[in-house]
Amino acid sequence: MDEILERDVADLWSILIDIVTDGEKRLASHFDTHQLTPPQFYVLKTLSDKEGECRIGDIARDHHLTSATMTGLIQRLEAMEPPLVKRQRNASDGRSVDVILTAEGAARFLAVQRALMDQLRAVFGLLPDAERRDIISKVRLYFNIFAQQFPVERLK
């Protein structure tokens, strides 16, 4: 057993846990400021990523939730004042319901995203250009190798 490798693995694990824990706290604070729960924010993000419209079942699958659970989440977003989403029957399949991001929902999502990006910009701005690019390159390399070695499908 390689002691240096074991120490490096333990160090990286500790750093990753710190990043995730700190990130969750920071995200929760931003979500709270914008009167959103984490699941509500991620629904808005999914809709934003899908150009503002998606079937409710697809959103549920993307978030590993049942359609019933997702329906409750969507209803709460729809009941907000102003509504952040609206629902409508799918034109081609009347059994399906589409969720549509409202202008207010898009604005709320962008406000949270902008606040998070401002924090990243402030921290990254403290580093020289070459160091920033080096960090991004190494993190991307790590995640690419990790994803190749342990694809999500194999983890289920």
Q: What is the CATH first-level class name of the largest domain?
A: Mainly Alpha
Order of helices and strands: HHEHHEEHHH
Mean pLDDT: 91
How many structural units, i.e. domains? 2
Tertiary shape: globular
Stretches with pLDDT under 50, minimum 5 residues: none
| CATH architecture verdict of the largest domain | Orthogonal Bundle
Query: What is the tally of helical segments?
Result: 7
Major sheet: arrangement of strands: 1-3-2
Task: Report how far apart the termini are.
Answer: 29 Å
Largest sheet: 3 strands, antiparallel
The CATH homology group name of the largest domain: Winged helix-like DNA-binding domain superfamily/Winged helix DNA-binding domain
Beta-strand content: 5-15%
Structural class designation: mainly alpha
- The Rg value, from CA coordinates, equals 19 Å
Q: How would you characterize this protein structure?
A:
This protein has 156 residues and is mainly alpha-helical. It folds into 2 domains: 1-33; 37-125, Winged helix-like DNA-binding domain superfamily/Winged helix DNA-binding domain (Arc Repressor Mutant, subunit A), CATH 1.10.10.10. Helices cover 71% and strands 8% of the residues. It has helices at 3-33, 38-49, 56-62, 67-79, 103-124, 129-149, 152-155, and strands at 53-55, 85-89, 97-101. The chain has a 3-stranded antiparallel sheet with strand order 1-3-2. The longest helix has 31 residues, at 3-33. The protein is globular and about 60 Å long.
